[in-house]
Amino acid sequence: MIAFMNNSDSEEEPCNERTSLMSAESPPVPSYQDGLPASEAGEAQAHRKRRAGSSRGPNNIAGGEMSGSGVPVRESILENEEEELTLKYGAKHVIMLFVPVTLCMIVVVATIKSVRFYTEKNGQLIYTPFSEDTPSVGQRLLNSVLNTIVMISVIIVMTVFLVLLYKYRCYKFIHGWLILSSLMLLFLFTYIYLGEVLKTYNVAMDYPTLFIVIWNFGAVGMICIHWKGPLQLQQAYLIMISALMALVFIKYLPEWSAWVILGAISIYDLMAVLCPKGPLRMLVETAQERNEPIFPALIYSSAMMWTVGMAKPDTAARGASQQTWDAAEDGREQLRSPSHAESQMSETRGPVPTRHVTSLEELEEEERGVKLGLGDFIFYSVLVGKAAATASGDWNTTLACFVAILIGLCLTLLLLAVFKKALPALPISITFGLIFYFSTDNLVRPFMDTLASHQLYI
Amino acid sequence: AFFWLLALLAASLLWSVWVQLSGREDAALLPLGAAAAVLLQELCRFACFKMLKKADEGLATLSKDGRSPLSLRRTAYVSGLSFGIISGLFSITNTLADSAGPGTVGIHGDSPYFFITSAFLTMALVLLHTFWGIIFFDACERRRAGGLALVVGSHLLTSGLTFLNPWYEASLGPILILTLCTGLWAFSTAGGSFHNVLKCLSCQQEPEGRAVLYSALQVPPE
């Protein structure tokens, strides 16, 4: 989910779903409506303040303007300035999101192409119980659809569970859950990954060195993600764990199921963010009513100059979104261990909420940042990684999917700048990615191969 | 890049349909397929131009002084460059990946210079796309059909020359010469000239002095 943090907040839920775009603040509404009486503007303003509690600056300006002598001209100028700034900063932050998404994809593709482990079939997750080794195409298709249904229902169940936990204030339980899953991700998966990479390059490493390396990596990761740390280090850790998670998905999801799941996830994302009913919306609204921040969440922030501060109560909106990301993340990342089925969160990428919390004054200084949920990173990388793994060794397909995803991200951010409310980041990119994957694999590949074998250029 | 991919997709679709219809005669249809691909690429370049023009106008209306922050020349350069990059990547990545693997070049009697000529051709193509982008956008902006026709024509010519490919003197040589000429033409289209180059090379020291003055004069508003 992408959060576009302007100096204004959105009327609707800022961020429902971990794979949705969140606009933590949006430009003040009164400025868009010329004839609004000052009282309504003031009320709307107060409402916004109560909800997100930040970014008083433009609201004040807008309120001041509104309560002036009916000045639609100044409103429109303000609106224009807001929009221009939005677009300008939006463009900058689009670029700032391109870099981590690209890095994550590069890591995943490089690993897939070099380490054989992640392309070998070694069993399946319990969340995709139907095997795809059936002889007939129809049966295989049916099995993949059933796998998808199972996976999505697991996600929904876990989300609802998390919402209930949050509603009944079992904060410690959720904290523990998050920490446990990030522990597992940072230690266990890194250990497996390192082991496989060393095996591929035939490098020997003794256990004491391994222990020291993994211990340091994991400990620093936990601190960076859940507590405080330099922004770039935190971003790097988030990218790494997204890549690890995507690699696990690529390995353990059977082929057709993976594609159907990608499609289904984007539809689910779209519905969960834009439909009025849903556990995530309830979560966000609960958080906003209680006016409290939620837990370290799974979100990548591209913001510069966020100061490290304590989580403040007035960041309920952002916190809520983070929580929803947790929920979906929990559901989605359940992995192999059936014994820990319920209490385990496979991985947390818990960027510190303190990282995204700024005081009111800082927000008035026009610090804008874009936040993208880590689930988006993961599924983008799953798509590109699957393209790299299964497209008959073709780089063109990988490149095409990469470009498609980036264009989708760009379009989504554009829509975010236009609509200024929570938007799902998955659907457009995944749709483009899927279209380009299937078309490039089946149509473009024979054409380009024939051209390249005769050394013809077009 | 996205537009180029769309063009490629459309061209591949056409080619696949043709191959299916004409019953498995790959080699004969290749010139047609390549020509269609070239034309579709130019069409998509035009679509890209239209879209960027619209975005430019939108930004201009939003900005304070009515001027858009993007300069058309720069967007032309970027668009051409991205077309070139994606085209080059698509042409060469598979070859590069294969070159790392086991095998001997030319073992079946093909030219042993396959890889090096591929590299040079790709480089020429990337540069050509960049230059064509600049020329094309400029011609569209000033509504000069001559420029457009020349771009399309030279693209077709380049693609056609690659059909002569194991005969590298006839294909690589002219293509490199074409690249050079197109580069000079694009340079002059973008407003450069011999004098500009001289001035740029000789006034290395001046801007620094001016920069100091400039920053001294400009007090930051904070």
From TrEMBL, chain A:
Region (Disordered): 1-72, 319-356
InterPro entries: Pept_A22A_PS2, Peptidase_A22A, Preselin/SPP, Presenilin_C
Transmembrane segments: 94-112, 145-166, 173-195, 207-227, 234-250, 256-275, 399-419, 425-444
A single GO cellular-component term on record: Golgi membrane
Keywords of the record: Endoplasmic reticulum, Golgi apparatus, Hydrolase, Membrane, Notch signaling pathway, Protease, Transmembrane, Transmembrane helix
Assigned EC number: 3.4.23.-
BP GO annotations: amyloid-beta formation; calcium ion homeostasis; intracellular signal transduction; membrane protein ectodomain proteolysis; Notch signaling pathway; protein processing
Enzyme class name: hydrolase
Biased amino acid composition, Polar residues: 336-347
UniProt topology in membrane: Multi-pass membrane protein
Molecular function as annotated in GO: aspartic endopeptidase activity, intramembrane cleaving
Broad class of where this protein is predominantly found: endoplasmic reticulum
Subcellular locations according to the entry: Endoplasmic reticulum membrane; Golgi apparatus membrane
Pfam families linked: Presenilin
Keyword Mitochondrion among record annotations: no
Subunit structure: Homodimer.
Domain observations: The PAL motif is required for normal active site conformation.
Recorded family membership: Belongs to the peptidase A22A family.
Function summary: Probable catalytic subunit of the gamma-secretase complex, an endoprotease complex that catalyzes the intramembrane cleavage of integral membrane proteins such as Notch receptors and APP (amyloid-beta precursor protein). Requires the other members of the gamma-secretase complex to have a protease activity. May play a role in intracellular signaling and gene expression or in linking chromatin to the nuclear membrane. May function in the cytoplasmic partitioning of proteins. Probable subunit of the gamma-secretase complex, an endoprotease complex that catalyzes the intramembrane cleavage of integral membrane proteins such as Notch receptors.
Protein name: Presenilin
Name of the coding gene: Psen2
UniProtKB/TrEMBL annotation, chain B:
InterPro entries in alphabetical order: Aph-1
Statement: the UniProt record of this protein carries the keyword Cell division: no
Keywords: Membrane, Notch signaling pathway, Signal, Transmembrane, Transmembrane helix
A Gene Ontology term for the protein's cellular component: gamma-secretase complex
Subcellular location: Membrane
Major location (coarse): membrane
GO BP terms, alphabetized: Notch signaling pathway; protein processing
Keyword field contains Transmembrane: yes
Membrane-crossing residue ranges in chain numbering: 29-48, 76-93, 113-136, 148-168, 174-194
Membrane topology: Multi-pass membrane protein
A Pfam family annotated for this UniProt entry: Aph-1
Signal peptide: 1-19
Similarity remark: Belongs to the APH-1 family.
Protein name: Gamma-secretase subunit APH-1
Origin species: Cardinalis cardinalis (Northern cardinal)
